[in-house]
Design brief:
It is a single chain. This protein is of the alpha/beta class. It contains 11 helices and 6 strands.
Length: 215
C-alpha cells in the first residue's frame, strides 16, 4: 500500500457526498473496504494521489501500514509532501503492532510535533475500518451538534476508539472512559482546548493530550 513519490497530492478537488467515503482505488478489495461494507457508502476513485480516504470535503486519511514503516522513509516524504501541498485536515492512521512499535515514537514526533497533524494508532485494518466509520458518523453530526446527544455517543463508541484514546500518553482505561463520556468522540476530543481537558483529567494529562493531537 505504498504511494510512489511522483504521485500528485490532488487533495483540493474532491467533493464527498454526505455520509460517504471516497477511497483510493488501491484499497479496493482490501480488508478495510470489506469491513466498511454495510456500514458506510464507499466510493473508489483513481487519482487521489497521496490521500487514502476522503471523509469529507475538508478531512482525509493517510494510512501508514506496518509494511510502510518497516520499508523505510518513503512514508515520511509522502506525509511531508501532503502537508506542504494541501490545506485539508489530514488524519494519519498508523498501524501500531509488535513489529512496528519500535518506529512509533519517531512517527509520532514527525506527525504531531513537526507536521502538526492528528495521529491515531490502530492494531490492524479491521480496527481502522471501525475508526473510519466512527469518524464519518462524527463528521455527519457537525452541522447539527447536540451536546446531550454527543455525550450519549460514548456508550456506542466502537472498541477501537476506546483503545485508541487509551494509547494517548498519560491516559489509561479510566481516563479514556471519562474523556469519551465528556467529549463523545475522537473528533470532539481533537478539538478540545487545554482548559476543557483539564476539567476532566487534570492539568498534566490535559497538556499531554493536547500535545498528542496538536489541535
Amino acid at each position: 500500500m505504498t504511494t510512489k513519490a511522483n504521485f500528485p497530492v490532488t487533495a483540493g478537488s474532491i467533493v464527498v457526498p454526505y455520509g460517504h467515503v471516497i477511497g483510493n482505488e488501491k484499497w479496493r478489495g482490501s480488508e478495510i473496504a470489506q469491513r466498511l461494507q454495510g456500514k458506510i457508502r464507499l466510493i473508489f476513485e483513481d487519482g487521489l494521489g497521496l490521500v487514502d480516504f476522503h471523509l469529507s470535503n475538508r478531512t482525509c486519511i493517510l494510512y501508514i501500514s506496518e509494511a510502510d514503516l518497516v520499508a523505510g522513509d518513503e512514508f515520511k516524504r509522502r506525509l511531508v509532501r501532503f502537508r506542504n501541498a494541501s490545506s485539508l485536515g489530514g488524519i494519519v492512521v498508523v498501524e501500531k503492532t509488535q513489529i512496528s512499535d519500535q518506529y512509533f515514537l519517531a512517527v509520532q514526533k514527525l506527525v504531531v510535533l513537526e507536521l502538526g497533524m492528528v495521529l491515531l494508532p490502530v492494531a490492524n485494518q479491521g480496527e481502522a475500518s471501525q475508526l473510519i466509520t466512527q469518524l464519518v458518523r462524527e463528521q455527519s453530526k457537525d452541522h447539527s451538534s447536540n451536546p446531550f446527544r454527543r455525550k450519549q455517543c460514548s456508550q456506542l463508541a466502537e472498541p477501537s476508539v476506546f483503545r485508541t484514546v487509551q494509547q494517548i500518553p498519560g491516559v489509561g482505561k479510566t481516563k479514556a472512559l471519562l474523556l469519551l463520556q465528556q467529549f463523545g468522540s475522537i473528533h470532539q476530543l481533537c478539538n478540545a482546548s487545554v482548559k476543557e481537558l483539564e476539567l476532566v483529567v487534570g492539568q498534566t494529562v490535559a497538556q499531554q493530550i493536547y500535545t498528542f493531537f496538536c489541535s
